[in-house]
Amino acid sequence: MVFATVAVCIAALVFLAYLVFRPKGNSTLPVPEGHWLWGNIFQFSCPRSDLLATRWSKELGAIFRLRLVNKNYVILNDYNSIHTAMVKKSKDFAGRPMHHGNRARYLYEYETSILVASPSPQWKTLRKSVHSNVKVYEAGLNKVEAVNMSVIAGLIGDFRARNGEAFNPQDNIYNAVMNIICVFLVGKKYRIDSEIFQLFKKVEQTTLTVLGPGAKGAELDVMWFLRFFGHKTFKKLTELRQWRRQLWAMTKQDLNSRTENDGEYGKGVIGALLESYQGSDDKLIKEINIMLTFQDLIFAGTSTTANSTQAFLNLMINYPEVQKKLQAEVDDVIGDSRPVSLKDRAMMPYTRALIFELLRYTSIVAMGVPHMASVDSSLDGHVIEKGTPVITNLWALHHDEAFWKDPFVFRPERFLDSDMQLLTADHPYRKHLMPFGAGTRVCLGESLALGRLFLLFTSITQIFDIKVGTKKVDADARDYLSGVNLQSPAYDVRLVSRNEHLFA
Ligand code: HEM
User: Fold this and answer.
1) pTM for the model
2) Domain segments of the chain: what residues?
């Protein structure tokens, strides 16, 4: 009797759990086979969820949904679906699913920033302000260039100090890119061993480990109660909030102690933002929104560019014929007696094609940044309910075998025409390339990133022959490590000087 009562109670509880956790709505989109209660969550919380989603899309079609416990997520895997959602129906899908992610909500202190806010008057004002400050920054191209080149000169110096011996370039690249971001944000480079620089690094790197689809602790998004049981990611999130507050206090103190012309390059984007809102009656933007946007820009700008540069060196080792062509163009257009300038770009189609190919091949931001349907809408005849998170699988778009010939071969020529000129922007290859997303939420740092990659790649190539280190590591992007951004596995390289006098 007792046994029967317990069995009935358990069955009732399980049924109740199913009723509570079963996803609401009646989506017609196919879903991969998963657990009856928690759906696909543990399958999807894996390293390289982009590769898994790409495999699923081959069985289920370009648009499918995942069930993560009681929530439906829509995954878009080809050009038509991504372009329709991001560009044609940009307004319908420009939201961010902040309410779905406990980790993000807690980290962002239940407030918003440029990256996590759905379109609203506050988001528009913030995006417009950052954008106009970025533009001011870009307007004086010489200034941006001077900033970049001073940091790049330091990086070249670090590389030279290796005397052509094998070494892992990861830290040097990361520190240089982080300092480029510091100059962009607050108008100043920092000493690598300074407390503030170390805090910048800690905030950036920890953010990457606690957010993102495949990051550890994704289960907190649907089982928030786990925070009461000593969950490690929750502890990290709490620490990160403290480090960010500390970094923000130090940054403000530093900015306040400087006069307009004091900093090497003004007060940067954050200095300008703070000045425009401090003392203004406009209560739309609060200091916390600027602090959170500061964090967005640190992590959106650093590892994306650092990982691309790290991938570049290993690609040059693995594709020596590409390196030769790049060097030939650098030697031809820039020569060996002056540093590279952004103005050279117009005369360097091969280099620009190489950068496009690198962005396609590596697809560093493989799953984009999650979007959300802001209204009831549809994609390819399927209803997408308001509030549904929508993920763009940019990896699948950039490695679609039905569209790209040999997508796993690194070949810059695919972006050149028969006269070796860059394909025009309306060419299908250019249109299918969306490493920065597209539409309303397109990456805010696209032109900055393209400019920096150009200066970094050409400067390194001008000064060094890039050679294999102690052992060759495959550059196949399918083997990259996951996080929020993909990263090449560690390798070492020999950078053998071919130009002794520049940056000496
Ligand atoms: C190789 C370098 C970079 C790549 C591949 C990249 C890629 C992306 C992607 C895919 C998105 C999401 C777009 C979407 O929501 O559909 C994004 C958003 C964003 N990126 Fe980048 N990014 C790069 C560099 C940068 C830099 C240097 C900055 C600024 C310093 C930056 C700032 C941002 C911001 C603020 C957003 C959010 C925009 C919004 O939500 O409205 N990114 N980026």
Assistant:
1) 0.93
2) 92-365+400-497
Instruction: Assess whether pLDDT exceeds 80 at residue 213.
Output: no
Which atom of ligand 1 lies nearest, measured to the CA of 438?
16
Q: Which amino acid is at 62?
A: A
Mean per-residue pLDDT over the chain, rounded = 90
Residue 269 backbone phi and psi in degrees, to 5: -65, -40
Residues 214-223 have a mean pLDDT of 76
* Cβ density class 284-322: b for 16+ within 10 Å, e for less: ebeeebbbbbbbbbbbbbbbbbbbbbbbbbbbbbbbeeb
443 is in an annotated binding site: yes
Closest among 498, 417, 409, 419 to 459, alpha carbons compared = 498
pLDDT tens per residue, range 406-434: 999 999 999 999 999 999 999 999 999 99
Burial class (CB in 10 A: 0-12, 13-18, 19+), 456: buried
Whether residue 365 is predicted with pLDDT greater than 70 in this model: the reply is yes
- Whether residue 362 has its Cβ less than 6 Å from ligand 1: no
Q: Would you state the pLDDT for residue 187?
A: 84
Here the ipTM equals 0.99
For residues 143 and 127, what is the distance between their CA atoms, to the nearest angstrom? 23
Q: Are 328 and 420 in contact (CB under 8 A)?
A: no
501 CA from centroid of ligand 1 (Å):
36
Q: Can you tell me the distance from the alpha carbon of 120 to that of 98, in angstroms, rounded to the nearest whole number?
A: 13
Mean of pLDDT values over 453-480: 95
Three-class secondary structure of residue 314 per DSSP = helix
Using left for φ > 0, alpha for ψ between -120 and 50, and beta otherwise, residue 503 falls in left
pLDDT at 498: 94
Expressed in angstroms and rounded, the spacing between residue 470 Cα and the centre of ligand 1 is 35
User: Sorting pLDDT into bands at 50, 70 and 90, what band is 44?
Assistant: confident
* Alpha-carbon span 289 to 103, nearest angstrom: 17
Helix (H) or strand (E) holding 377: strand 377-379
Residue 217 backbone phi and psi in degrees, to 5: 90, 10
3-state secondary structure 18-78: HHHHCCCCCCCCCCCCCECCCECHHHHCCCCHHHHHHHHHHHHCCEEEEEECCEEEEEECC
Ligand 1 binding pocket mutation candidate from 443, 447, 455, 456 (most atoms within 8 A of CB): 443
Superfamily of domain 92-365+400-497: Cytochrome P450 (1.10.630.10)
Inform me whether the pLDDT recorded for 216 exceeds 90: no
How far, in Å, is the centroid of ligand 1 from the Cα of 444? 6
- 269 versus 493: the higher-pLDDT residue is 493
Q: What is the pLDDT, as a whole number, of residue 276? A: 84
For residue 181, give the ligand 1 atom closest to its CA. Answer: 30
